[in-house]
Amino acid sequence: MRKLSLTEFTARADGPVFSGVAASRLIERGGLSRYLPGERSHPEGGPHVHTTPELFWILQGSGHLDIDGKAVPFESGDILWIDPGEDHHVVSGGELPLVSVWMRLEG
């Protein structure tokens, strides 16, 4: 897991926006998620892993990422890079609902 900033992304008309952090990665799918304070992604439990990288851009709120059993705090503006195979769950904390954009990248 890595924390990134928006300045590390390169927007180009002729290539992927992730060329600055991961050459040739394109967005496979994504969405917008909202969690109330105390809510956790994938509440059904068990491991949650992917075979490709996933990004979370935190737009509002704060909380922590349960990543391979460790809690990593985040706040609005952070971009979280999840490597393939890392077990991860987003947990909303603070007073505001957590709003994030998530993106799964091509392998």
Structure notes:
With 107 residues, this protein is mainly beta. It has one domain: Jelly Rolls (Sandwich). 0% of the residues lie in helices and 46% in strands. It is built from no helices and eight strands. The chain has strands at residues 2-4, 27-35, 54-60, 62-67, 70-75, 79-82, 88-93, 98-105. The strands form two sheets. A five-stranded antiparallel beta sheet has the order 1-6-3-8-2, with no helix packed on it. The chain has a three-stranded antiparallel beta sheet with strand order 5-4-7, with no helix packed on it. Strand 4 and strand 5 form a beta hairpin. The two termini are 16 Å apart. The mean pLDDT is 88.
Low-confidence stretches: none
Strand content: over 45%
Instruction: List the total number of helices.
Output: 0
- Given helix and strand content, the structural type is mainly beta
Question: What would CATH call the class?
Answer: Mainly Beta
Shape: globular
Order of helices and strands: EEEEEEEE
- What's the number of domains? 1
According to CATH, the fold-level topology is Jelly Rolls
Q: Output mean pLDDT.
A: 88
The CATH H-level superfamily is Jelly Rolls
Major β-sheet, in short?
A: 5 strands, antiparallel
Number of strands: 8
Estimated helix fraction: under 10%
Give the strand order, joined by hyphens, for the main sheet: 1-6-3-8-2
Q: Report Rg.
A: 14 Å
CATH architecture: Sandwich
